[in-house]
């Protein structure tokens, strides 16, 4: 199983378990997240790259992978994603570099898969 399949399988499996608990607060939060990234005044591509930059600054590898996948699906190019990486690094500083390495690895997996 490759990096992308492993991430998506684990995420799906755990989300199913979480949603099976039928907790109203958790379900509402998940729904809020889904609706935040839906088409609106900003298009999906723009929202996903914003989410990616924020995830880099917060140093959340799972979030970075998720937004990389969604950005790739939305048609973000390699040049564009590296500009987003640069924004994340400028805002987050050098502590973002290890997350950048893993992000580049994941992006290359997406390119090779697509």
TrEMBL record:
Pfam families: CMD. Residues 27-105 form the Carboxymuconolactone decarboxylase-like domain. Gene3D superfamilies: AhpD-like. InterPro entries: AhpD-like (IPR029032), AhpD_core (IPR004675), CMD-like (IPR003779). NCBIfam families: ahpD_dom (TIGR00778). This is Carboxymuconolactone decarboxylase family protein.
């Amino acid at each position: 199983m490759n990096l992308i399949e492993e991430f998506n399988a684990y995420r799906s499996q755990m989300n199913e378990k979480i949603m099976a608990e039928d907790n109203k607060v958790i379900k509402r939060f998940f729904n809020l997240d889904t609706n935040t990234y839906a088409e609106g005044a900003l298009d999906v591509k723009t929202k996903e790259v914003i989410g990616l930059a924020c995830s880099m600054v917060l140093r959340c590898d799972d979030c970075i992978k998720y937004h990389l996948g969604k950005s790739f699906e939305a048609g973000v190019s390699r040049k564009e994603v590296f500009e987003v990486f640069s924004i994340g690094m400028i805002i987050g500083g050098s502590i973002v570099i290890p997350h950048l390495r893993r992000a580049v690895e994941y992006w290359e997996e997406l390119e090779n898969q697509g």
